[in-house]
Amino acid sequence: MSIRRTHTDNPQHPAAIVGFAIFLVGFGAAPLALTALAFGHGTAALVAAIVAVIGMAIGIGIVSVMTQRLHHSALLPDASPKEEQHYLEVYRHQAA
């Protein structure tokens, strides 16, 4: 018996995951900007700061747009009664 996979099995939207990854790149560039600035590397600090601001802005933008389009969090699954019933039927093989 094969179980059919649907979009409800994986509620994370791929575009939102990409947006979150872009945000993490920007978030990681922020400390690099501060460190480069502390060591006197102004050009590297400026480049890292620009990458940080742009990366975080684009990442937040993508996740926000996907959340509005899906009408729920694009990264976190909802725990509605319908989804709990689906989980019990598909994964626990129980009918409540």
Tally of DSSP β-strands: 0
Instruction: Give a short account of the largest sheet.
Output: none
Radius of gyration: 20 Å
Element order: H for helix, E for strand = HHH
Beta content: under 5%
User: What share of residues is helical?
Assistant: 55-70%
Describe the structure.
With 96 residues, this protein is mainly α. The protein has one domain (14-92). The chain contains 3 helices and no strands. It has helices at 14-38, 42-70, 81-90. Helix 1 packs antiparallel against helix 2. The longest helix has 29 residues, at 42-70. The radius of gyration is 20 Å and the shape is elongated. The chain starts with 13 loop residues before the first helix and ends in a 6-residue tail after the last helix. The model has no long low-confidence stretch (mean pLDDT 85).
List the helices and strands and how they pair.
Layout: H1 14-38, H2 42-70, H3 81-90
Structure keywords:
single chain, 96 residues, mainly alpha, elongated
What is this entry, summarized?
67% of the residues lie in helices and 0% in strands. The chain has helices spanning 14-38, 42-70, 81-90.
